[in-house]
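Reopening this ticket.

The earlier resolution said the output was attached, but the attachment link was broken on my side. Pasting everything inline this time so it's all in one place.
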Amino acid sequence: MELSATELHAQLTSGKVTSVEVTRAFLDRIAAHDGAVHAFLRVDRDAALARAAEIDQRRAGGAKLGRLAGLPVAVKDVLCTQGEPTTCGSKILEHFRPPYDATVIERLKAADAVLIGRTNMDEFAMGGSTENSAYGATGNPWDVTRIPGGSSGGAAACIAASMAPLSIGTDTGGSIRQPAGLCGVTGLKPTYGRVSRYGLVAFASSLDQIGPLARTAEDAALLLEVIAGHDAKDSTSVDRPVPDYHASARQPLKGLTLGLVREHFGAGLESEVEQAVREAVRVYESLGAKVKEISLPHGKYAVAAYYVIAPSEASSNLARYDAAHYGYRTPEEPMIARLEKEHAALEKAGNEKALANHDNALVRMYRQSRAEGFGAEVKRRIMLGTYALSAGYYDAYYLKALKVRRLIRRDYDEAFQQVDLIVGPVTTSPAFKIGEKVDDPLAMYLVDLYTVSANLAGIGGIAFPCGFSASGLPIGLQLQGPAFEEERLLRGAAMFQQATDWHTRRPHLR
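Inline output:
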């Protein structure tokens, strides 16, 4: 249970353990502790053990096996898996069973991974705390009264709690890196287009990206190698060769120049987070890296631009959940009875204007189903996006946000002319208490301060632990790199992890 995925893989390959033994150990860990953490929405123990037994049998028969043969992998509940519930943490998709597999799921199956369960998430990946799931919040394994970060909170928490060696998350504004930083694990957001989004239930199509979470950068490299690569079914998938990330992950970067963004160390950053990040920079310097101060001047507009662009795309993507094609539909008999009662009351009052505007049954079915099916955060973002895209406001908000997005990308392009990687914090503070920011959406949105820029620019980033707070909570470090330089990010993270032991620490769950 304490071994990394790479070490487990070596033991499976050498025959020291079987996939059934490994899978059962993680399933037992889930059974013992997920009641407190709630990292998983669904675990099919029998199916996972049957799959593990099948792989063991093929291994014993000398069959050629895939890259992840026998390793359990947890999957965020936002990737379509044929015949299995895929809820996106939403009531509106409570009974949805996709008729096909997402490309990432196909690749995991082809690599002989054991899909161990579906992890909890903010509804439709909208949130920074995993408190917005229709099925209850996830707790941080280091302190279950605190949030694990979001929206891939379940995917990060299950790694931190040793319930799975590998997991898949998605990152629209920091949703892999932020929970990785807050839970003390390693999470990589690949460059936009590096991993196929086919079969990913869309939140904001120009920002969403699928990526790995693991204990170490080496493990993340192993998983990325399997899921990356061109896919003809996704027109945004880029046709570039996939490097052997795992083989190169442990090779240190020589002559590394790190960029330290001066705007990252202003008001709002808690002192113990700044202290941990600056100490991490000193570790890199001791390993031979040079550090250069740089500026990303348009980064201060990133959160504002993100919260125009992402809700705008979400309002369009989520229009499909109309209760007519698929998804939750309000019970019709009580709805029609109420509608007729309202109509009769208006007729009796002689209110002709209200009668003219009164819903017919079809419109009321749409309205009521969406009102009951979506949670508060999703409704908030749909309204924000609809407003930003409406006539008269498109140029003032959406178009302006797109122009800012271009400036942010230009800042990064200029920065990477000077440095190899950019180093900085993942979040302003360690994990906060569940419920602490629920009633303050603006404070919650500012949690994404250090991560959204990478999504707007379409570049990659990786987060991993670099220290702990005085109260024993993990603090994360983020590296950002030029587009399609995941190999550099992974090597940079692995270089740090070879010199420190923050990534080896585990929470004590009772």
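Reporter confirms the inline version is readable. The first strand starts at residue 40 and ends at 42. The longest helix spans residues 394-415.
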